Amino acid sequence: MQFTKTITSWYSVNKRSLPWRDTKNPYNIWLSEIILQQTQVKQGLPYYYAFLKAFPSVFHLAEAQESDVLKLWQGLGYYSRARNLHAAAKYVVNDLNGTFPSNYKDLLKLKGVGDYTASAIASICFNENTAVVDGNVYRVLARYFGVNIPINTTKGVKYFKTLAQTLIDAKNPADYNQAIMEFGAIQCKPQSPNCNICPLNTSCEALAKNMVKTLPVKLKANKVKKRYFNFLVFISEDGKTILEKRTGKGIWQNLYQFPLVETKQDADFDVFSEQLKTETLLKKQSFQLSLYNKDSIVHKLSHQHLYTKFWIVNVNKLPVKGVVFKDVKAYAVPVLIGNFIEAFQFK
DNA sequence: AATGCGGGGGT
DNA sequence: ACCCCAGCATT
């Protein structure tokens, strides 16, 4: 297929030099693929180096505490990736004697490994003939073949997986898969691709029909929800504050935060001050309240905007076991909390 | 099939 | 304000 030949020869000339391209070690490739899920190379690169340094092998990772893995993952987002990474490492060590699964089907059994990642590892490390379909592949194929089926539907997912599988270079799945992704990232990029220099510009359906800007088609996402977060930054006379672990289902699972009071709307000082008197932590406790940031800090996640206030709660003695100020930075926290800790300087 | 999950960067 | 990113798990 001409498409396949052009993509692979483009890749041999234009590929970036990246650390995970110097190895076929499945541990390294797996780590890189998990880090790069929904994450650009530039953002993930420092984490890849940090993880390999802290956990050079799957055995090191399996022996770690989840809290240490999350701390190292801090700032990268989608924290279930870190929790699943750690769980999968323990599975590989405890159930598979440390030997990585070596085919698509068995790779899928690892937590956090879905169709894309199993295909990537199987092809790159074991040369299995299974096509990857990531955001880049959707875009390249939708444009080149002029496909307007929405990519985020069951029909679209199946269609593109099948199409990708017909195009893969069976003699070199490892390079072909990486080639089409790199082509999407650098040449057939989302915004204003330079089609003048594209090696496929004489046969690209989207270019011929002036559809480059409208492909691929993606069904619109839901609207962003607004939430109002009030963090209680306790300050005790013996130099401690309170950190709580987030449990349950929502965002930032297993990360730490200051005690949180969520309100239906932006909290007013007087109203909130009264409300606090009924909070469990402050029921039988006198406290002095001050507001750290008058204007809410807006922290934007994909599907929620968090309007956030940090309330400084001075107390004589903490109602629960606290954390001494110098230890606060050892906890894995969301970026929103980490930024506050950096700026506030506990002392 | 629909929803939730982070954070950074670009336009 | 909206889109994108080497997606996955849950319901």
TrEMBL record:
Gene Ontology MF terms in the entry: 4 iron, 4 sulfur cluster binding; 8-oxo-7,8-dihydroguanine DNA N-glycosylase activity; adenine/guanine mispair binding; metal ion binding; oxidized purine DNA binding; purine-specific mismatch base pair DNA N-glycosylase activity
Function: Adenine glycosylase active on G-A mispairs. MutY also corrects error-prone DNA synthesis past GO lesions which are due to the oxidatively damaged form of guanine: 7,8-dihydro-8-oxoguanine (8-oxo-dGTP).
Record EC number: 3.2.2.31
Transmembrane segments: none
One Gene Ontology biological process: base-excision repair
Name of the protein in its database record: Adenine DNA glycosylase
Known cofactor(s): [4Fe-4S] cluster
Entries under InterPro entries matching the protein: A/G_AdeGlyc_MutY, DNA_glycosylase, HhH-GPD_domain, HhH_base_excis_C, MIG/MutY, MutY_C, NUDIX_hydrolase-like_dom_sf
SMART domains recorded: ENDO3c
Start and end residues of each HhH-GPD domain: 35-186
Record text on cofactor binding: Binds 1 [4Fe-4S] cluster.
Reactions accelerated catalytically: Hydrolyzes free adenine bases from 7,8-dihydro-8-oxoguanine:adenine mismatched double-stranded DNA, leaving an apurinic site
UniProt keyword annotations, A-Z: 4Fe-4S, DNA damage, DNA repair, Glycosidase, Hydrolase, Iron, Iron-sulfur, Metal-binding
Enzyme's top EC category: hydrolase
UniProt keyword Cell inner membrane present: no
Family to which the UniProt record says this protein belongs: Belongs to the Nth/MutY family.
Protein species of origin: Seonamhaeicola algicola
Alphabetical list of PANTHER family matching this protein: ADENINE DNA GLYCOSYLASE
